[in-house]
Design a protein that fits this description.
The chain is of the alpha+beta class and 179 residues long. The protein has helices spanning 2-9, 15-68; strands at residues 70-76, 82-87, 92-98, 104-110, 125-126, 132-139, 152-159, 163-170. It has 2 helices and 8 strands; from the N terminus they run ααββββββββ. It has a 5-stranded antiparallel sheet with strand order 1-2-3-4-5, covered by helices on one side. Strands 6-7-8 form a 3-stranded antiparallel sheet, with helices on one face. A hairpin with a 4-residue loop joins strand 2 (82-87) and strand 3 (92-98). It starts with a helix and ends in a 9-residue tail after the last strand.
Length: 179
């Protein structure tokens, strides 16, 4: 009788125990894979947002630099979606435009006459690849106002419809304010 008890105690796992162990193992693996996929997706989205923000910031800095060195700025359109200027350091007419397909575009044409920048037929090229909308707001320089006003431009960029950045640039065409 003791020999029967010894062989019965040395038996392996039952099929039910094996199925339960496999179920727990598969459940753990599925949970781990779904967590990894979620983290990977979030990381990819974060990198895309960061890249779009860096591109927009670079474009904003380029526009601000060009505006600081320009005269004759004027905005066009109902929502101030386009701006023209004459860059005095380069001798070029420059135009920035927020297009209907949510792209920020630039056009730069050599010119000797600052007053014709708004009449030139521009050919625009995208500055950045992400979706960008925005507007320009111009305050012109006025030496006759009290107090005298130095012109400025405010640039507002909305990246991918979620994040907004803006800057304001003072012009260097003091136009008789400082004598």
């Amino acid at each position: 009788m003791t020999n029967k008890n010894l062989t019965k105690n040395n038996a392996g796992f039952s099929i039910l125990e094996l199925l339960i162990a496999m179920f727990i193992f598969v459940l753990t693996i599925i949970t781990a894979v779904s967590i990894f996929a979620s983290v990977s997706s979030t990381r990819q989205k974060s990198r895309e947002i960061q890249r779009n923000m860096e591109d927009a910031r670079t474009a904003l800095d380029l526009m601000a630099k060009n505006m600081r060195m320009s005269i004759g700025l004027s905005e066009v359109g109902i929502n101030h979606q386009e701006i023209y200027m004459f860059n005095t350091s380069q001798g070029d007419c420059i135009s920035y435009k927020f297009d209907s397909d949510n792209k920020l575009k630039i056009s730069q044409i050599p010119s000797v006459n600052p007053s014709n920048c708004s009449t030139i037929a521009y050919t625009y090229n995208p500055i950045i690849s992400s979706d960008v909308s925005g507007s320009f707001l111009i305050t012109t320089t006025s030496a006759t106002a009290t107090p005298k006003i130095v012109g400025k431009a405010t640039i507002v960029l909305t990246i991918d419809g979620t994040t907004t950045i803006q800057t304001t640039v003072s012009f260097r065409d003091y136009g008789g304010i400082i004598q």
